[in-house]
Design goal:
The protein is α/β, with parallel strands linked by helices. It contains six helices and three strands; from the N terminus they run ααβααβαβα.
Length: 122
């Protein structure tokens, strides 16, 4: 399901969801990165090591990014360090970050006002 506000909720919509659930894979991603002028700058991916539910996901995502032509700097750390660092907005070259992986339950994301993915705070 590609509903940003949760599948099966009153605000859950799958309009244009194919942009989240389908694609041309690594080859299409490589072409899009080249078209965008990606210069190989490393993508800093924070990877929690102490939460079993999240520990393997950054490994998979980092490989997918590499397959697509990205340079990945996966940085392992405990969850508390990750959330502390996540609060900062420094550039990756100054101790900041680009990505981290987490999971959400539908009640946490079904309200667009409270949805952490839509709050625009970086």
């Amino acid at each position: 399901c590609g509903a940003v506000l949760g599948c099966g909720t009153p605000l859950g919509s799958e309009a244009d969801a194919e942009t989240l659930t389908q694609g041309g894979g690594a080859e299409e991603a490589k072409a899009l990165l080249a078209e965008a002028g990606y210069d190989g700058t490393p993508v800093v991916l924070m990877a929690p090591t102490d939460l079993v539910a999240l520990a393997t996901q950054p490994v998979v995502v980092s490989q997918m990014l590499r397959d697509a032509g990205s340079t990945v700097d996966m940085q392992p750390m405990d969850w508390q360090t990750l959330v502390t660092r996540r609060a900062g907005q420094a550039a990756p070259s100054e101790g900041g970050w680009n990505m981290f992986i987490t999971n959400w339950m539908v009640p946490e994301i079904s309200n667009p006002i409270a949805n952490p993915m839509l709050n625009g705070r970086g």
